Amino acid sequence: MTVLNQVYKCKICGHIVEVLHTGDGTLVCCGQPMELMPEKFTDVGMEKHVPVIEKTATGIKVKIGSIPHPMEDKHYIEWIQIFTDGKVCRKYLKPGGKPEAEFNDKADNAIARELCNVHGLWKTQ
Ligand SMILES: [Fe+2]
């Protein structure tokens, strides 16, 4: 059984999918069950991945992380997502850009999540 907004990855082809509607079946890609990507909440070591949320005049800025994450071709933040009051917003990033995203949402209870192409899924507590 899946859970809403879980993220799954295919270990063979690299497909990544997010659950938008739950079901009892097993998600399968390339003939194998897809692997649930666990959400991580605590940084370990020098590289920082946990999103940092800042309020701005127009909404919310999310930075990855407390020390800016690399944005190199082989190692970068693929996207940043926020969850607020039943809404989900995502910004896709590219190598060479900044590891941050701005959202026009003034909610006080935003939760942020991001995907590093090497180190997986990270979320604010
Ligand atoms: Fe990383």
List the helices and strands and how they pair.
Elements: E1 7-9, E2 16-18, E3 28-29, E4 32-33, E5 35-36, E6 39-40, E7 51-55, E8 60-64, E9 77-84, E10 87-92, E11 100-103, E12 111-116, E13 120-123
Parallel strand pairs: 6-13
Antiparallel strand pairs: 1-2, 1-5, 3-4, 7-8, 8-11, 9-10, 9-12, 12-13
The protein binds fe (ii) ion.
Concise overview:
By secondary structure, the chain is mostly beta strands. Helix content is 0%, strand content 42%.
Describe this protein's structure.
- The chain has strands spanning about 5-10, 15-20, 30, 30-35, 35, 40, 50-55, 60-65, 75-85, 85-90, 100-105, 110-115, 120-125.
- The protein folds into two domains: about 5-35, Rubrerythrin, domain 2 (Single Sheet), CATH 2.20.28.100; about 40-125, SOR catalytic domain (Immunoglobulin-like), CATH 2.60.40.730.
- About 0% of the residues lie in helices and about 40% in strands.
- It is globular.
- With about 120 residues, the chain is mainly β.
- Strands 6-13-12-9-10 form a five-stranded mixed β-sheet, with no helix packed on it.
- Fe (ii) ion (FE2) binds near residues 47, 49, 118 and 119.
